[in-house]
Design a protein that fits this description.
Number of strands: 10
Keywords: Dioxygenase, Metal-binding, Oxidoreductase, Zinc
Cofactor: Zn(2+)
Strand order of the largest sheet: 5-2-6-1-10-7
Radius of gyration: 17 Å
Family: Belongs to the DODA-type extradiol aromatic ring-opening dioxygenase family.
Number of helices: 10
Shape: globular
Largest sheet: 6 strands, mixed
Protein name: Extradiol ring-cleavage dioxygenase class III enzyme subunit B domain-containing protein
Oligomer: single chain
Pfam family, one: LigB
Length: 268
Protein backbone atom coordinates (compact mmCIF):
# COMPACT_ATOMS: atom_id res chain seq x y z
CA UNK A 1 0.00 0.00 0.00
CA UNK A 2 1.51 3.34 -1.10
CA UNK A 3 1.81 6.08 1.50
CA UNK A 4 -0.73 8.85 1.00
CA UNK A 5 0.63 12.23 -0.08
CA UNK A 6 -0.70 15.14 1.96
CA UNK A 7 1.22 17.65 -0.14
CA UNK A 8 1.17 19.03 -3.66
CA UNK A 9 3.73 21.46 -5.07
CA UNK A 10 4.20 24.28 -7.54
CA UNK A 11 7.78 24.75 -8.68
CA UNK A 12 9.01 27.78 -10.62
CA UNK A 13 11.49 26.29 -13.08
CA UNK A 14 12.64 29.62 -14.53
CA UNK A 15 15.20 29.36 -17.31
CA UNK A 16 16.41 26.10 -18.94
CA UNK A 17 19.91 27.06 -17.72
CA UNK A 18 18.72 25.87 -14.30
CA UNK A 19 19.98 22.52 -15.63
CA UNK A 20 23.65 23.65 -15.59
CA UNK A 21 24.00 27.03 -13.84
CA UNK A 22 25.46 26.51 -10.36
CA UNK A 23 24.97 30.21 -9.52
CA UNK A 24 21.16 29.92 -9.40
CA UNK A 25 19.82 29.53 -5.84
CA UNK A 26 16.78 27.65 -7.20
CA UNK A 27 19.12 24.92 -8.46
CA UNK A 28 20.48 24.32 -4.95
CA UNK A 29 16.97 24.40 -3.51
CA UNK A 30 15.86 21.62 -5.87
CA UNK A 31 19.00 19.59 -5.21
CA UNK A 32 18.18 19.66 -1.49
CA UNK A 33 14.64 18.38 -2.17
CA UNK A 34 14.88 14.85 -0.75
CA UNK A 35 17.00 15.86 2.25
CA UNK A 36 15.33 19.08 3.32
CA UNK A 37 12.05 19.71 1.55
CA UNK A 38 10.19 16.46 0.97
CA UNK A 39 11.84 13.22 2.16
CA UNK A 40 8.77 11.07 1.45
CA UNK A 41 9.34 9.06 -1.75
CA UNK A 42 6.33 9.02 -4.08
CA UNK A 43 5.15 5.91 -5.90
CA UNK A 44 4.87 8.00 -9.08
CA UNK A 45 4.72 11.65 -10.16
CA UNK A 46 2.01 13.48 -12.11
CA UNK A 47 3.63 16.61 -13.45
CA UNK A 48 1.81 19.52 -15.07
CA UNK A 49 4.20 21.66 -17.13
CA UNK A 50 3.59 25.04 -18.72
CA UNK A 51 5.45 23.75 -21.78
CA UNK A 52 2.73 21.32 -22.84
CA UNK A 53 -0.28 23.33 -23.93
CA UNK A 54 -3.17 21.57 -25.71
CA UNK A 55 -6.83 22.20 -26.50
CA UNK A 56 -7.95 19.32 -24.26
CA UNK A 57 -6.30 17.73 -21.22
CA UNK A 58 -3.70 15.23 -22.44
CA UNK A 59 -1.60 12.61 -20.67
CA UNK A 60 1.52 10.93 -21.99
CA UNK A 61 1.42 7.14 -22.02
CA UNK A 62 4.92 5.74 -22.57
CA UNK A 63 7.07 2.98 -21.08
CA UNK A 64 10.17 5.19 -20.84
CA UNK A 65 10.25 8.99 -21.08
CA UNK A 66 12.38 10.60 -23.78
CA UNK A 67 14.11 13.88 -22.91
CA UNK A 68 12.68 16.74 -25.01
CA UNK A 69 15.02 19.67 -25.75
CA UNK A 70 12.36 22.33 -26.28
CA UNK A 71 14.73 25.32 -26.05
CA UNK A 72 16.99 26.99 -28.61
CA UNK A 73 20.37 28.69 -28.65
CA UNK A 74 21.64 27.41 -25.31
CA UNK A 75 25.05 25.80 -24.51
CA UNK A 76 25.69 22.44 -26.19
CA UNK A 77 26.10 20.66 -22.87
CA UNK A 78 22.38 21.17 -22.14
CA UNK A 79 21.41 19.11 -25.21
CA UNK A 80 23.40 16.14 -23.90
CA UNK A 81 21.58 15.92 -20.57
CA UNK A 82 19.23 12.94 -20.21
CA UNK A 83 16.48 12.12 -17.75
CA UNK A 84 15.27 8.62 -18.66
CA UNK A 85 12.56 8.25 -16.02
CA UNK A 86 10.11 5.39 -16.54
CA UNK A 87 6.72 6.34 -17.89
CA UNK A 88 3.61 5.84 -15.75
CA UNK A 89 0.98 4.40 -18.12
CA UNK A 90 -1.26 3.16 -15.29
CA UNK A 91 -1.20 6.59 -13.64
CA UNK A 92 -1.99 8.24 -16.99
CA UNK A 93 -5.09 6.08 -17.47
CA UNK A 94 -6.16 6.57 -13.85
CA UNK A 95 -5.80 10.36 -14.22
CA UNK A 96 -7.87 10.20 -17.41
CA UNK A 97 -10.54 8.12 -15.65
CA UNK A 98 -10.78 10.65 -12.78
CA UNK A 99 -10.98 13.62 -15.15
CA UNK A 100 -13.69 12.04 -17.30
CA UNK A 101 -15.68 11.11 -14.17
CA UNK A 102 -15.49 14.78 -13.07
CA UNK A 103 -16.96 16.10 -16.31
CA UNK A 104 -13.85 16.66 -18.46
CA UNK A 105 -15.44 14.80 -21.34
CA UNK A 106 -12.42 14.59 -23.61
CA UNK A 107 -8.96 13.60 -22.36
CA UNK A 108 -6.39 12.76 -25.02
CA UNK A 109 -3.65 10.13 -24.84
CA UNK A 110 -0.23 10.89 -26.30
CA UNK A 111 1.70 7.65 -26.77
CA UNK A 112 4.95 9.23 -27.99
CA UNK A 113 5.69 12.35 -26.00
CA UNK A 114 8.41 12.29 -23.34
CA UNK A 115 9.24 14.98 -20.77
CA UNK A 116 9.68 18.64 -21.76
CA UNK A 117 12.20 20.81 -19.94
CA UNK A 118 9.56 22.11 -17.54
CA UNK A 119 9.44 18.53 -16.25
CA UNK A 120 12.88 17.00 -16.66
CA UNK A 121 15.01 19.97 -15.56
CA UNK A 122 13.49 20.23 -12.05
CA UNK A 123 13.08 16.45 -11.74
CA UNK A 124 16.73 15.87 -12.68
CA UNK A 125 17.72 18.01 -9.69
CA UNK A 126 15.06 16.68 -7.29
CA UNK A 127 15.19 12.98 -8.15
CA UNK A 128 18.51 12.49 -10.00
CA UNK A 129 18.19 8.69 -9.84
CA UNK A 130 15.39 8.93 -12.49
CA UNK A 131 13.78 5.85 -10.93
CA UNK A 132 10.30 7.24 -10.14
CA UNK A 133 7.69 6.78 -12.91
CA UNK A 134 6.50 10.12 -14.35
CA UNK A 135 3.36 11.02 -16.27
CA UNK A 136 2.84 14.49 -17.75
CA UNK A 137 -0.49 16.30 -17.97
CA UNK A 138 -0.97 19.29 -20.26
CA UNK A 139 -2.42 22.75 -19.58
CA UNK A 140 -5.16 24.41 -21.64
CA UNK A 141 -4.03 28.03 -21.83
CA UNK A 142 -7.22 29.15 -23.58
CA UNK A 143 -9.19 28.19 -20.44
CA UNK A 144 -9.11 29.99 -17.06
CA UNK A 145 -7.86 29.54 -13.50
CA UNK A 146 -11.12 28.01 -12.22
CA UNK A 147 -10.93 25.37 -14.96
CA UNK A 148 -7.40 24.37 -13.93
CA UNK A 149 -8.31 24.44 -10.22
CA UNK A 150 -11.13 22.00 -10.99
CA UNK A 151 -8.73 19.88 -13.01
CA UNK A 152 -6.61 19.57 -9.87
CA UNK A 153 -9.68 18.90 -7.70
CA UNK A 154 -10.60 15.97 -9.94
CA UNK A 155 -7.11 14.51 -9.52
CA UNK A 156 -7.04 14.81 -5.69
CA UNK A 157 -7.78 11.06 -5.11
CA UNK A 158 -4.37 10.29 -6.63
CA UNK A 159 -2.73 11.67 -3.49
CA UNK A 160 -4.17 8.76 -1.49
CA UNK A 161 -2.62 6.41 -4.04
CA UNK A 162 0.94 7.65 -3.38
CA UNK A 163 1.11 10.03 -6.34
CA UNK A 164 3.02 13.30 -6.05
CA UNK A 165 1.08 15.99 -7.95
CA UNK A 166 3.37 18.79 -9.04
CA UNK A 167 2.93 21.89 -11.18
CA UNK A 168 5.96 23.36 -12.93
CA UNK A 169 5.90 26.89 -14.34
CA UNK A 170 7.04 30.34 -13.23
CA UNK A 171 5.49 32.68 -10.68
CA UNK A 172 6.22 35.52 -13.14
CA UNK A 173 6.79 34.77 -16.81
CA UNK A 174 7.26 37.70 -19.18
CA UNK A 175 10.18 36.65 -21.39
CA UNK A 176 10.24 39.95 -23.28
CA UNK A 177 10.92 41.85 -20.07
CA UNK A 178 13.88 39.73 -18.92
CA UNK A 179 17.10 41.59 -18.25
CA UNK A 180 15.59 44.97 -19.21
CA UNK A 181 16.17 46.51 -15.80
CA UNK A 182 19.47 48.29 -16.35
CA UNK A 183 19.63 49.51 -12.76
CA UNK A 184 19.74 45.98 -11.35
CA UNK A 185 17.34 44.67 -8.73
CA UNK A 186 13.78 43.51 -9.29
CA UNK A 187 11.41 45.55 -11.46
CA UNK A 188 8.45 46.99 -9.47
CA UNK A 189 5.63 45.31 -11.44
CA UNK A 190 7.19 41.84 -10.93
CA UNK A 191 7.71 42.46 -7.23
CA UNK A 192 4.16 43.69 -6.79
CA UNK A 193 2.57 40.72 -8.58
CA UNK A 194 4.83 38.21 -6.81
CA UNK A 195 4.05 39.72 -3.39
CA UNK A 196 0.31 39.71 -4.15
CA UNK A 197 0.57 36.03 -5.09
CA UNK A 198 2.45 35.14 -1.90
CA UNK A 199 0.00 37.02 0.34
CA UNK A 200 -3.03 35.53 -1.44
CA UNK A 201 -1.73 31.96 -1.20
CA UNK A 202 -0.52 32.18 2.40
CA UNK A 203 -3.87 33.69 3.45
CA UNK A 204 -5.77 30.92 1.63
CA UNK A 205 -7.42 33.27 -0.88
CA UNK A 206 -7.42 30.61 -3.59
CA UNK A 207 -10.47 32.02 -5.37
CA UNK A 208 -8.61 35.31 -5.85
CA UNK A 209 -5.68 33.39 -7.35
CA UNK A 210 -8.10 31.56 -9.66
CA UNK A 211 -9.30 34.98 -10.87
CA UNK A 212 -5.84 36.53 -10.91
CA UNK A 213 -6.47 38.36 -14.21
CA UNK A 214 -9.06 40.54 -12.42
CA UNK A 215 -7.60 40.55 -8.90
CA UNK A 216 -3.81 40.80 -9.20
CA UNK A 217 -1.75 43.92 -9.88
CA UNK A 218 0.09 43.75 -13.23
CA UNK A 219 -1.41 40.33 -14.05
CA UNK A 220 -1.03 40.80 -17.81
CA UNK A 221 2.55 42.02 -17.40
CA UNK A 222 3.51 39.10 -15.14
CA UNK A 223 1.79 36.55 -17.40
CA UNK A 224 1.17 37.83 -20.93
CA UNK A 225 0.13 34.22 -21.64
CA UNK A 226 -1.00 32.10 -18.67
CA UNK A 227 0.58 28.73 -19.60
CA UNK A 228 3.24 28.93 -16.85
CA UNK A 229 0.75 29.99 -14.19
CA UNK A 230 -1.97 27.36 -14.63
CA UNK A 231 0.15 24.49 -13.22
CA UNK A 232 -0.17 26.39 -9.91
CA UNK A 233 -3.96 26.17 -10.08
CA UNK A 234 -3.82 22.41 -10.65
CA UNK A 235 -1.57 21.95 -7.58
CA UNK A 236 -3.89 24.18 -5.50
CA UNK A 237 -7.01 22.33 -6.60
CA UNK A 238 -5.48 18.92 -5.92
CA UNK A 239 -4.67 19.93 -2.32
CA UNK A 240 -8.20 21.22 -1.65
CA UNK A 241 -9.74 24.51 -0.58
CA UNK A 242 -8.73 24.16 3.09
CA UNK A 243 -5.08 23.34 2.26
CA UNK A 244 -2.34 25.45 3.84
CA UNK A 245 0.13 27.08 1.46
CA UNK A 246 3.79 27.59 2.33
CA UNK A 247 6.46 29.47 0.38
CA UNK A 248 9.32 26.95 0.18
CA UNK A 249 11.74 28.85 -2.06
CA UNK A 250 12.15 32.38 -3.32
CA UNK A 251 14.76 33.95 -5.58
CA UNK A 252 14.92 36.21 -8.63
CA UNK A 253 16.81 36.14 -11.90
CA UNK A 254 17.16 38.63 -14.74
CA UNK A 255 15.22 41.36 -12.91
CA UNK A 256 11.71 39.92 -13.33
CA UNK A 257 11.79 36.10 -13.29
CA UNK A 258 10.49 34.83 -9.95
CA UNK A 259 11.49 31.37 -8.75
CA UNK A 260 8.83 31.40 -6.00
CA UNK A 261 7.80 27.80 -5.21
CA UNK A 262 4.96 26.63 -3.00
CA UNK A 263 3.88 23.62 -0.99
CA UNK A 264 0.18 22.94 -0.39
CA UNK A 265 -0.59 20.72 2.58
CA UNK A 266 -4.03 19.17 2.60
CA UNK A 267 -6.11 19.49 5.77
CA UNK A 268 -7.44 15.93 5.45
Amino acid sequence: MALAMKDTFYISHGSPTLSIDESLPARHFLQSWQDKVFPQKPKSILLVSGHWDTSFPSVNIVQRNDTIYDFYGFPDSMYKLKYPAPGAPELALRAKELLVASGFKRVDEDRERGLDHGAWVPLMLMYPEADIPVCQLSVQSKRDGDYHYNLGKALAPLRDEGVLIMGSGAATHNLRALGRNSGGGVVPWALEFDTWLKDSLLQGRYQDVNRFQEKAPYAKMAHPWPDHFYPLHVAMGAAGETAKAKLIHHSWDLGSLSYASYQFTSAN
